[in-house]
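Write out this protein's structure.
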Amino acid sequence: MTPRTQTRERLLHAAAGLFRSQGYASTGLTQVLAEGGAPKGVLYFHFPGGKEQLAAEAVALAGRQLCEMITAVLAAAPDPGTGIGQVAGLFGQALLASGFREGCPVATVALDASAGSEAIRMSCEGAYGSWADALERHFRDHGVAGADARQLATFVLASFEGALLLARVQRDVAPLYAVAATLAGMVDKAVST
């Protein structure tokens, strides 16, 4: 018998992937169960709050995973501008590998469901906030002071979100890399002043 925690984790990972590519409204619980390899009836045992709880937890999971990846990429980069380019590479690889079905792991759910669910909105806010915090810490570590580090982090994050959307719609990573090149120059300028 599969331990309960493994089933729960499989469902969370399946839901995160489906929500990322299809959005909240287009993802059915039967599809999540099938993708997660779990029998019917088990979903409400693990997620008594139903689809809303599942989505909120899946977004939080995806947010943590991407935050860890962003943090690792930035830490390994020789300079902040290069790090920004490598983060773009991370997004670009995901877009290409998914046939442009998977952009940001939070945006699709945020646009689809955050206005109607406080739990989902808070999970989306938490994910975006953790990414902005990681960027801000990185910029501060490289000499960007005070509020300037937060403003730069917010600008970088918002720019990536827009670039991901354009790349998905155009089915081309060029917008992502164009934005990343501009951002890298801005970041390098900010850290050198």
